[in-house]
Every structure is written in C-alpha cells, then in structure tokens.
Amino acid sequence: MARAPAPKGGPPPHDDRAEAAILGAALLSPDALATLATQLRPGDFYRPGHGAIAAAMIRLYESARAVDPVTVADELRRAGALDTAGGPGVLIDLQADTPRTSNVGSYATIVHDHATLRRLLHSAEDIRERAADMPADVHEAVIWAQQRVADVAANNGSRTYSSLRVTDIAALLAGNLDTEQATLLTRTDGRALLYAGKMHALFAEPSSGKSWLALLAALEILRLGGAVIYLDLEDSAPGIVGRLIALGADPADVGARFAYLSQDGRFGAPERLELDRLLEDLNPDLVVIDGVAVALARDGADENSNAEVAAWIERVPKPIAATGAAVLLLDHVTKDREKRGRGGRGAGHKLAALDGAAYYLNVLEPFSRARPGAFSLRIEKDRPGGVGEVGANAATCFLEPHGDGARVIMRLDPPALGGPASAPRKPTYVMGRISDVLTDAKVPVSATTLRHLVNAKARTVDAALAALRAEGHVIDRREGRSTFLRLVRPYTGPAVPDLGPTPDLAPPLSDELGEF
Known about the structure:
The chain is of the alpha/beta class. It has helices at 16-28, 30-39, 48-62, 69-78, 82-85, 89-96, 104-132, 138-154, 169-174, 210-223, 237-246, 251-257, 269-282, 292-298, 306-315, 317-321, 349-352, 428-440, 447-453, 458-470; strands at 184-186, 192-194, 199-204, 228-232, 258-262, 286-290, 326-332, 357-365, 373-382, 393-402, 407-413, 474-479, 482-487. Residues 418-423 and 495-516 have low confidence and may be disordered.
C-alpha cells in the first residue's frame, strides 16, 4: 500500500502511533525489546520524547539490565531526559496502549521507513542549499552530494545489532585449515612476505629503503598482470613512478595498472568515494600507504593515541584490506634507539591492529643511486604465522645501481644467503620440468603439490617457480581459500647456454629473475 504523501509545508514523514506501539511492546516483551535494540536507533524516532525513551531502553538492554517502567524511568532520570520523555506516567501509558506485541516487526518497519524518508528530505535540502550557494568547485560539490545520498542508502535497512560473526565450523572443517601462506613480495627461494587481504607494515628510519621495497612488491605484481595503488604522502609522482621504472617496470604496465594518489588534506567523504571507485575499477592486489605519520596528522589524529590510531585504521586501511588487497603501511620508528621497541613510533596499536605481517628494516650497507647497499628485514609481527617467528630475520635485500642510478637491481634473498645483487644462475632445468608438469596436469596444482611432483630439492623447486612467476610463465590463481598455479606460457629454456651474467654486455642476470 502506498504511503500518504506528507503535505507540502507540513511536518516531515512520521507515525506517532507506530513509535508509541514499539516502545510499549518493548516494555512488555523481551522479544519486542530485542527488535527495538537491534533494528532501530534513537534517532529513528521523530518525537524527541520517544527517542529519549528508546535510548534509555537500548542502554539497559546492552548492559543486560531489566527493562520495565521503573528501570526505564530511573535511566531517563540519570540521563536528565525524564522531562523530555513526558515523565514516569508516560511509560505506563505506553504499556497500556500497545495494540499487539506480536506486531513489533511491522511497527519497527514503519518507524524505520519514515526515518529514512526524513533523512532523504534533509539531505535533499542540504544539497539544494549548497547548489544555490554556487560553489566554486562544482565537481567537489557533486561528490559531496553523492556521499550525502550514499549515507542515507547505507542506513536504509534493518540495523544489525551484533558485530560478532559466527563461523560455520562444519564448513570450516570440511574446507582448508592449512596455515595461511604469504603470496606477495617473493624472495629468490619462492617464499613470500605479504598476505593477500591483510594489513602489513614496514617500520624503519627515514631513507632506509621502505619505499624501494614497496615498489619491489609493486614490480612483482605488475609483472604477474596484477594492479597496484600507491597512496603517497611523502614523495611525488615523478619520484615514485621514476623509481618503479628504474627497477625495470614496463611503462605500459605502469600506465595501465599502477595508480598513484596523493593527499593534501584529511581523508574525508569525497576521498573515500574516489578511492572506492578506484578500488572497484582496478581491483588491486596491493595498496601502499606511504606514510602513516603524515596520514594521521592530516586527519587531525594523534599518532601517540591508541584510540585515534585505531579509528584511522578502521576508517582507511581496514576497508581496503576487506577488498582482498594486501595493504602495506610505511611508517617511521623512534629516533632514540634506546627507547625503540617493536613497531612504529607512537601508539602500540600501529602494530597491534595489523592482521598480516610487520617488518623492521635494518640498514646493513647504506644505499644510493651511485652506491650499492643492503638491508635486512626483521619480523616484528606475523599474525598468520606463515613467514616466521618474531625477532627472526625474514630476508636480506640487496640494491645495486647501474647507469648512474637510472637502473636499479633489487634482490630479496632468504636470510641465510648473501652477496651482490647480481643473482645466481637460474635453475633452468627445473624450470622446464615445472612447465612440463603444469602442461600435463589434469587437476589444479598448488605450490606444495608441485614440490612432490618435481624430482628436485624443495629449495630448487621454489627458486625455479619464483623465476617462472617473475618471467610471466606462471601466475597464482585464487579459488576460494586455496591458491593454485596456472601456466600462462610454456618455458622452453634459454636460447643459449646459461653461463651467467656478462656485466659489460648485458644487464645482471637478476633482471631475468624479476629482481627479487
């Protein structure tokens, strides 16, 4: 049945009888009280007195206290809202005038729908006033208007009271309970350091290599056909894109699947809307936020406050990770080494909130565009447990400049390995065996299964697989909770005997390994 339109110039849409009915029902029935507390907010009530009563009932319900006219009147008195509600007698009247407690769902729907219409009218009026003021930036005004309507849409539906998520244990036991494995930022032995769909951090002193390492991860993803978003608050587009090209990224890949964003002010509704659109368009595998301290400052948040850091993480990086992208936060550490603990500078929640891995970059040899260098990665946190224990070294990264710094070779080795950035010879024979296995396979093959199918040491198989991934022969394909290998193009081996690099005639062989 169509609702009667509100008269022009009259009060906005509301239904006093439905509001009173659900409040009265909540005083009489625990089930009706649960409906009120889980499907409505105090602001959904048009009458201020009704909203005050609803707020008192919801507070009592959430603290597991009894709800009746006496306890509600006491709660209203404590909140200084008893007079607004109409006095103690109004609660008795609400009980007595309730038509049927069993119809509470219908009462809640009526109250909610009228509240949604009021919000829509208020948003429309705000939009009309802003347009009438002739804003200088029309594009920004349109984005703001879209966000206002989106806010109404987000509230259009029954409120979910509980944020708890109950897992289907039977389905979980029937699926894959293997330890989550990192799949991004791959070492030369095939092991990776970042997890898809989780939040990570690199902690280090300034100019220690954080951005270079983030761009190495971006290079790997671009070469595998994936996409990357780089939200930069410390450098510039020429600086970041120039470094990515120096690492050997194909400009065509960068132009098509690498998005560079900068942020001058706070991360508000227009920024959220634009980022959401970009996330939907690109579907990135990695989103880098460089750096955290500046992002917090521009949002007016204190990096020493756990509460303010937690609010920023809930608002910015966490929703990004929910899309399935790995989020990599770049952050500074305390200058005083004596006072430096785990994690970044300031609030401990910077580390505690991460559900992926975090690493501290320790400079072994300072690097510049004219001088090779190296740093190690110490594990500060590994929530899934697929990389290693806290305090252990996860990798050693070597950087080697060429051509006056126009070209930079990077390689990410397991911590036991070491040496110049020119990589060892590729295990071409094992690479060919892997290509043959994947060509002949009738069912999906995982990296773990591959180690059993190829007659070679597991470490050699991992290194060969890393090389195939880097050269675009093999990609990872996620299916539900599992990751399988897909052969994009067969590997036929080198055209000439693999004799290693010839520095004066060819780039280092690490270039063929994807420089990691």
